[in-house]
Amino acid sequence: MGMNVHSHLRVPQKRSTEMMLQISPTSLPGSDQRKPEILASVREAFADKGFDATSMQDLARATGMSVGNFYRYFPSKAAIVTELIGADLESLSQEFATILSSDTPLLELRATLVGRMNRSDCATDGKLWAEITAAALRKPDIGAAAWRMETEIISHLTTIFTIATGLNRDEVTARFTAHASLIMALVKAAMMHPTEPVERRADLIALIMRTIDQNLDEIAAARVKG
Length: 226
Hints:
Order of helices and strands: HHHHHHHHHH
Helix content: over 70%
Radius of gyration: 19 Å
């Protein structure tokens, strides 16, 4: 499968900056210089105690703010999730822009996915998103925010597939949205998987990538000839 994906995907593709999605993440009030610091503290607090068990007071303490000031930034946990999603989408949009600028976008996508699953902060982020996913099933406002992120990611992936195949966007959407959803679900599952011995996690990621490679091969095989 590895040889197959490399032989199919290493083909220069035309690039179109018009197809790059423009994400407009939400903004915290006040100085943006504190934004990464605040969100990092919020992530750690959620990862330590869990989404439901962490109170707004806990989060305020974690960020070094008074409760009143913290509520100015975040009136609810749903607002916090929206900010976390905005920050993550901003980071992801930069990664997708790099993929779209590549002459081999599917190979670049593959490398990006492997790198994301092997990142040192994967376990922390995975634990956080497992908590948020569980909360999304019970709380419609959080569910809507989480769905927005998944929709944005699937749209990014179909943009990559459109450029890589040369097909029109409508056809790619009809044929490969399910592929995009599966790829996203597999990477998300790998991130949410409990910490395992290194060799076991390596086996899990390798198995996930074999499945992703099969999907990418199907997409590459649809490339317009000539």
